[in-house]
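S.,

Sequence below, as promised.
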Amino acid sequence: MPHYLDFEKPIAELEGKIAELRHLTGAPGLNIADEVGKLQAKVEKQIRQAYGKLTPWQKVQVARHPERPHFGDYVRGIVEEFTPLAGDRLFGEDPAIIGGLGRIDGRSCVILGHDKGADTEDRVRRNFGMAKPEGYRKAQRLMRLGERFRLPVVALIDTPGAYPGVDAEARGQAEAIARCLETGLSLRVPVIAVVIGEGGSGGAIAIGVANRVLMLEHAVYSVMSPEGCAAILWRSADQAPAAAEALKLTAPDLRRLALIDAIIAEPLGGAHRDPGRAVGSVGEAVTRALRELAAVEPDKLRADRREKFLEMGRQGLA
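The prediction came back faster than expected:
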């Protein structure tokens, strides 16, 4: 059964009726094609109305949808000859961040990103996309590998945030994230980051220091979760919708603030309704960015990236 969000209840009811009618198609003397067609038109109208006026909190729900395509879906859809590389060479392997080598549009690249997992067992194994220090140290290793062999780096962001557990803190979570940022700023190869779902806090930006930062239409990118913000400001997670509004975490907000470079359109009803099309759109956007950056000199790539991120926020202070 499809997973429906709270604001999708009218859509769920209509699609339930369509499913019931289709079960009757084998009954003699029944011709229900016209009725199904009318209901399908109503479904499309409901989806357009619902997704044409999403609130920031509803966008958070869409970004977290369990049926949105994950890192593995993007790799299968846009990367050829993907070879995963595991471990940070210091502590161990963190399945919350996947990375390796592959080809995009015929160009060899380093590809890395968060993966929340496809089902319950996989989500638990991947810690719901919340990486520990070894995950970020693996990311550093892969970035440096890209620079050594002059390969572009493509990062796919989808995490609630870095794992805040005692074991992660004991192994230097903050230092690992800081070193990841430092590594991203120092690279002399093209770096492209795409927020494909939820971009939460330092756990997201750790692999998001890029020459081009792209974002799916219904993804979110924020300094912290709305629930965490509400708990701090209002002492109640019930104020999460108000916090989502205040955080300016949607793609249009971030584009206006010049914190991202472009928005990638999603299929009608979100990436979860047509994962293949969403994956294709991301592939096209990454390919365009790779081609644009291919001719830029290595030193300029690094200088432009550093200027881009170090200038963020200064305009508001002036």
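The domain at 60-317 is CATH 3.90.226.10 (2-enoyl-CoA Hydratase; Chain A, domain 1).

Coffee later?
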